[in-house]
Design a protein that fits this description.
The complex is a heterodimer of chains A (335) and B (281). In chain A, helix 2 (23-39) runs parallel beside helix 9 (160-170). Chain A has 335 residues and is an alpha/beta fold. Chain A is 40% helix and 18% strand. The radius of gyration of chain A is 19 Å and the shape is globular. In chain A, strands 2-1-3-4-6-5-10 form a 7-stranded mixed beta sheet, sandwiched between helices. Chain A has a 5-stranded mixed beta sheet with strand order 7-9-8-11-12, sandwiched between helices. Chain A is built from 14 helices and 12 strands. Chain B has one domain: Rossmann fold, CATH 3.40.50.970. Helix content of chain B is 41%, strand content 11%. Chain B has a 5-stranded parallel beta sheet with strand order 1-2-3-7-6, with helices on both faces. Chain B has a two-stranded antiparallel sheet with strand order 4-5. The radius of gyration of chain B is 18 Å and the shape is globular. Classes of the chains: A alpha/beta (335), B alpha/beta (281). The A-B interface holds A 65-66, 68, 70-71, 73, 75-76, 78-87, 89, 106-107, 110-111, 114-115 and B 66, 105-106, 113-114, 116, 118, 120-121, 123-133, 135-136, 154-155, 158-159, 161-162, 165-166.
Chain lengths: 335, 281
């Protein structure tokens, strides 16, 4: 299993299953970046004391002078990364999503966005995946904050395989990028077989005539399950993985607005500023009269607990997505 | 002229340029105080210490200067003009919309390796540049200038720790210790205390000079670096130096230089630093 030196090698199903054990950060950092680092000697990874939890330990052993632990100092990390990048290197910065953007937002804006340096900002354990560690460790604003920065790409892979593929792609892209990793160990597999991935291109996972669900990250699997529940009720819902929130795949949106009257956007993020907002902005400006429903954190504070418990409060578990869709589609159809 | 005399002349010219640019800014006002305190520091850096080639600005072995305390950038521009990175017309047009100094935060051709007017950003970047140079075994050095008010920012201290942790003996910081920030005396607003002791406690080699507006002291201070550890020079300066109405006056952090104030300042500088002093310049 590898894509080293530009050659695409088929990834078998057993490997995909094995990937589940390491979580999306293990796939991105431990597997993909190991290859990126082997291919290019001018790549650094800076990490704020999370080598062990991010899956970087092995990579640090292999490249001790290029995987640099800066301690628990996110602002300093982005600044140091900028210094390395100024001399031509590509630099990954890694820590929990809740800290890498929020704590160091100004450093990110200036060094990554304004200067357009080759900085890849990797937020691990995004969304509610830190569960009962609580609100301080949740990341539900990071897409909004990075999406409004010029030059910044925002990518949210939906499972381990996709995280790995985004990692390989990140090695080839220029300029700043935010990678939001919301997956944890043993998360469900979305892609059971190897597939072609390209940044910015939406992947349709399920067809359906009645409504469309757009989603990213951990909510792709939940949306697929919601579509199954809807099917039992005679409603055909399509599901698409919009892994690249920015640049938005407008080509795809231009096609689907011909086909659907309602689009549901489901994400583990505040409904303000995320993919739902991005899609709404684009379609409102088009003036096509399509209805968009955003499902996610409803600008409220939830109680810490298991991920499922938090999703329930936000109304984004599979059955809740299905119920809301059923109700709204029914009401719409009845005029 | 001796080298010291040349640098004093350079500082004299720079001070005039700073005032002219501040005057050109008109009613918008200009960050005058912190530029005037740093004139000699910039003169020594660009006139004596830094290795660079104006005709080959991307020369690989050039020393990297990462500017902090960008409220002092009028002095930085004045130095870049004195050594030929910038032309006088660049400075004349500095306040005009669309001029080539505006907006471009990095422009190595103009001598600007990095720039950010927000405080606390430069030292971490300098640490990154120095780390890269160490790993790639480059001979060049990395310099940065930071303000004393800038030391209030926490990210600066994160970078002080990182530099000593990674043994960056190729990194040299200068602190323009002018004892004032925007609202008043640093010791009243957020006391910095014994900076030398703080820096040494953070694992840096530190030298402090009494008069950071004195060319000889600055050169001696910077050259006392033994290159065993990251090195910081604390240069005690006077904010607004050379213009008596602005000296040690916090309000001149940013102020409007009217026609009258401009003439007063220029004649004072000429008397003290220029014609009046040995008639040299």
């Amino acid at each position: 299993m590898c894509m080293a030196r530009g050659k695409t090698v088929h990834i078998d199903e057993l490997t995909i299953k094995t990937m589940r054990k390491i979580g999306s950060s293990g796939s991105f950092l431990g597997l993909a970046l190991k290859e990126v680092m082997s291919d290019d000697s001018d790549v650094y990874i800076l990490v704020a004391d999370v080598c062990r939890y991010s899956g970087l330990s092995k990579v640090k052993e292999l490249f001790p002078d290029r995987v640099i632990n800066v301690g628990i100092a996110e602002q300093d990390m982005i600044g140091i990364a900028a210094g390395l990048a100024l001399q031509g290197a590509k630099v990954y910065v890694v820590t929990y999503a809740s800290f890498v953007v929020l704590r160091a937002m100004e450093q990110v804006r200036h060094n990554a966005s304004v200067l357009g340096l080759n900085l890849i900002i990797v937020g691990i354990n995004a969304g509610y995946s830190m569960e009962d560690l609580g609100i301080s460790h949740w990341s539900t604003e990071d897409i909004a904050m990075t999406r409004c920065l010029p030059n910044m790409k925002v990518v949210c892979p939906s499972d381990n395989l996709e995280a790995y593929k985004v990692g390989i792609e990140s090695g080839k892209t220029k300029g700043p990028m935010y990678v939001r990793l919301s997956g944890v160990r043993d998360d469900p597999i979305v892609y059971e077989k190897d597939y072609e991935y390209s940044l910015g291109k939406t992947i349709v996972l399920k067809d359906g005539e009645d409504a469309l669900i757009l989603s990213h990250g951990s909510m792709v699997n939940e949306s697929l399950k919601a579509a199954d529940l809807l099917k039992e009720n005679g409603i055909g819902a399509a599901v698409a993985d919009v892994h690249t929130v920015k640049p938005l795949d407008t080509e795809y949106l231009d096609i689907v607005i011909q086909k659907y009257r309602m689009i549901f956007v489901v994400e583990e993020h505040n409904i303000i500023g995320g993919l739902g907002t991005a899609v709404s902005e684009y379609l409102a400006e088009k003036g096509c009269g399509i209805r968009i429903v955003r499902l996610g954190m409803r600008d409220e504070i939830y109680y810490p607990g298991s991920r499922k418990y938090i999703w329930q409060q936000a109304g984004i578990c599979d059955y809740q997505i299905a119920e809301q869709m059923k109700r709204l589609i029914g009401r719409w159809d009845n005029g | 002229m001796s080298d010291i005399k040349c640098l004093e002349k350079m500082a004299f010219n720079m001070r005039c340029i700073v005032l002219k640019m501040a005057h050109d800014a008109g009613k918008k006002g200009a960050h005058l105080g912190g530029a005037l305190s740093a004139v000699e520091i910039y003169a020594v850096l660009y006139g004596e210490i830094l290795k660079y080639d104006v005709d080959n600005p991307y020369w690989e072995n050039r020393d990297r200067f990462i500017a902090g305390k960008e409220h002092g950038r009028l002095a930085e521009y004045a130095a870049l003009c004195e050594v030929g990175f910038l032309s006088e017309s660049d400075l004349d047009n500095c306040s005009v919309d669309g001029n080539r100094l505006a907006g471009h935060q990095i422009n190595v051709e103009l001598g600007l390796e990095y720039s950010c007017c927000s405080l606390g950003m430069a030292l971490p970047v300098a640490v990154g540049v120095a780390l890269d140079a160490k790993r790639k075994q480059k001979a060049y050095k990395v310099y940065t200038l930071i303000g004393d008010g800038e030391l209030d920012e926490g990210a600066v201290w994160e970078a002080f720790m990182a530099a000593s942790h990674y043994k960056l003996n190729n990194l040299i910081a200068i602190v323009d210790r002018n004892h004032l920030s925007s609202d008043g005396k640093t010791e009243d607003i957020m006391s910095l205390g014994n900076l030398k002791a703080k820096f040494e406690a953070f694992g840096w080699e530190c030298e402090e000079i009494e008069d950071g507006n004195n060319i000889e002291q600055l050169i001696k201070g910077i050259n006392s670096n033994k290159f065993v550890k990251p090195f910081v020079l604390v240069a005690n300066t006077v904010k607004g130096k050379g213009v008596s109405y602005a000296e040690n006056v916090a309000a001149w952090h940013r102020g409007i230089v009217t026609d009258k104030l401009y003439e007063d300042a220029i004649s004072e500088i000429e008397n003290v630093y220029g014609k009046g002093k040995n008639g040299a310049y």
